[in-house]
Amino acid sequence: MKILSWIALALLTSLPLTAQDDFWDEEDARKACEPFLRYLPGPAGRPTDADRKTFEREKNCFGHFYDPDGRPEYDKARRCCLVRGDCNRELAMIFANGWNTPRDLGAAMYFLCRAEDEMAPAEQWSMLQFVDGLRAGKEKGNLDYCEHVTSGMGAGWCASVELDQKRAEWERRAAAVERTLKPEARPAFAALRKAMDDLANADANYMAEPNRGGTIHSAVVLSSQVERNDDLLATLERYVQKRAPAATPDALQKADAALNTAYKAILAQAKADDKEYETGTAGQDVLRDAQRAWIPYRDAWITFYRLRWKGAAPAEALDREIAAALTEKRTRELNELGAEP
């Protein structure tokens, strides 16, 4: 998998595949919603007096629905949204998917028809088409807004939700690593974690640079942060459990030379792109920032690695093997970035 994920970009250029031949437009959506103008949802689709008393002062119901720890409270989300009236999209998903309430596709259509202010028009039409397909037996699976996104704002929203949920997962994984460490290695581990965060952010900014100025830019930054953090954490788990391959001084020197070659090549491409698109030094600047963030990341790794594997080999041998492994990996990353279309 290439470092730069274009999933978010694809959200802007294509709608989800469906069992039907054509995508709905405004007229299709209007016709589908006509029967629901006078529709009355069942009891689960109407707020009770107790719901109003509980949620009338709630400012945001999304926290019940989009829980970062992966434990959404769909019953509270449903009751809160019914009172607030500003998250019909989430109500549609709850009823379409039968989350903590009996599945009710009629109610899902009812709430989707009232969600036009909560998403881009084409997103609402696509979701309506999907639920209509569920009702007709032409579609299967769950209704998920993020599978119907066509706007930069929607892509950014979905990427931010994913990032929040991933952060909780990363903290759990990092905590599991920390529990395996001796006390003397934990300060170095904390420094490495900070360096990992700085590198992930710098790399994400570089990955998103081609989209700067577009509505999808923030979504690409966020989705790239997810990709980079996942990768950096996997590297952490790998070299905490098992040492990197042994490296001679000559091997490390060759790895450094290959990295310099890869960096010069991608920097030359960034300069050419800046000139072609008249962006000053924007592409070069974010690339330099990313590589400058990698250097303290590598140094933090060397300090941590020496403590983690203390006694397993001479300190200089430990330094070489982790430095060589990280340098070779960075070279592959830069080469992949340079190969992106």
| Succession of helices and strands | HHHHHHHHHHHHHH
Calculate the terminal CA-CA distance, rounded to whole Å.
Answer: 14 Å
What overall form do the CA principal axes indicate? elongated
Number of strands: 0
Sheet with the most strands, sense and barrel status: none
Give the count of helical stretches. Answer: 14
Name the structural class.
mainly alpha
Binned strand content: under 5%
Portion of residues within helices: 55-70%
Low-confidence stretches: 1-20
What is the mean predicted local confidence, pLDDT?
92
Question: Could you tell me the radius of gyration in angstroms?
Answer: 25 Å
Give a description of the structure.
There is one protein chain. This protein has 341 residues and is an all-alpha fold. The chain is 67% helix and 0% strand. It contains 14 helices and no strands. It has helices at 7-13, 26-33, 49-55, 62-65, 74-84, 88-97, 105-112, 121-136, 152-179, 186-208, 217-241, 249-277, 282-308, 315-339. α6 packs antiparallel against α7 and α9 (152-179) packs parallel to α11 (217-241). The radius of gyration is 25 Å and the shape is elongated.
What is shown here, in short?
This protein is mainly alpha-helical and 341 residues long.
Question: How are the SSEs ordered, and which strands pair?
Answer:
Blueprint: H1 7-13, H2 26-33, H3 49-55, H4 62-65, H5 74-84, H6 88-97, H7 105-112, H8 121-136, H9 152-179, H10 186-208, H11 217-241, H12 249-277, H13 282-308, H14 315-339
